[in-house]
Amino acid sequence: MTYKNFPMVPRVIFGRGSFNQINDVLAPKRKNINAPFVFLIDDAFKGNPWLTSRIQLAYDDKIIFIPTKEEPKTEQVDALVEDIIVQSKERPSGIIGIGGGTTLDMAKAVAIMLTNSGEAKDYQGWDLVKNQAIYHVGIPTISGTGAEVSRTTVLTGPEKKLGINSDYTPFDQVILDSELTKDVPKNQWFYTGMDCYIHCVESLTGTYLNEFSKSYGEKAFELCKQIFLDDTLSKTDAQEKLMMASWHGGMSIAYSQVGVAHALSYGLAFLLGVKHGIGNCIVFNHLEEFYPEGVALFKKMKEKHKIELPEGICANLSEDEFNTMIKVALGLEPLWENALGKNWKTIATPEKLRSLYEKM
Ligand code: NAD
Ligand code: ZN
């Protein structure tokens, strides 16, 4: 047995208001005046000087706003990399992603593709990246995905939704400032927060579980219960706790895997463009047989926060469309093996998946 040798984020700042230190953190990393810092910022912050005015741009530094209506695509990464190369005199000193999972993943992927030839789709998979990425910094503005700690950047390519999983993917620096999450709309807060909760349930009930993952997963699970069920928490405390739950949830799956909800949600995302957070919620709501306790608690949280999930999203799909979703979902073999064990194929049959999708 050989054990995996995982990289971790080497530097992290935690604290309310710590975003103010961004310029001091970056200054020593500037290579020269021709090598800019490129800030990829969630478009929720467009026209919001509260955040952007704190970034001191110098020389050729620039801000690019990232649209978040859709999840990141490989072709979008390629286009951004091309633009940055054309517009900069030299390769950038750093890429700084500020936003949700979409923007953080864009930042990671762009940093990788600036030093690796070819197209982003060529690197979807495990350990295909050859060269070290450009220095990259992640600053989450919504909590839950764990993208700030993970070893992957999830991209939708022409053939699949799959991450670029590599030792060069994790951020070199993360800034965790919960104040940046203060204006997240309630529904989105719930969906992305539940991504974290589902990471914990899938990791803690999976066959890949080990003490490393368990220690992080249990902590994140505990925090989620407080955040989503305890009325006495202050808003600030809840924001700080969710930021750390996201981190621990991400660490938990780093050394194990996610499970059935993520596999089915990837199918919905690939075919229908359903976004990760809400997609996981739609799926998880119907997974009592796999995660009885986790789903019961999820329903309690959903009711408490009066969240209404869309229904009937698969009602009008054709035979071909169902088959596409089922193929994408079943292709994620490690997720199924983690959830159901080595004989997962006897349980997760195409017919079983079809019946689950039909309920959604
Ligand atoms: P997201 O990044 O799309 O953000 C959700 C919405 O919230 C967007 O409309 C965004 O503009 C808005 N938003 C973000 N911060 C805000 C703020 N402070 N105030 C107001 N609005 C704000 O969604 P997400 O759930 O954070 O991330 C989903 C993405 O993350 C998916 O693409 C998924 O594949 C990816 N993901 C990656 C990993 C990983 O390990 N790399 C893990 C899980 C999910
Ligand atoms: Zn997830």
From TrEMBL:
Pfam families: ADH_Fe_C, Fe-ADH. One of its GO terms (molecular function) is metal ion binding. The lineage of its organism: Bacteria, Pseudomonadati, Bacteroidota, Flavobacteriia, Flavobacteriales. The keyword Ribosomal protein does not apply. Keywords: Oxidoreductase. Residues 11-177 form the Alcohol dehydrogenase iron-type/glycerol dehydrogenase GldA domain. SUPFAM superfamilies: Dehydroquinate synthase-like. Residues 191-301 form the Fe-containing alcohol dehydrogenase-like C-terminal domain. It comes from the Bacteria. The keyword Oxidoreductase applies. This is Iron-containing alcohol dehydrogenase family protein.
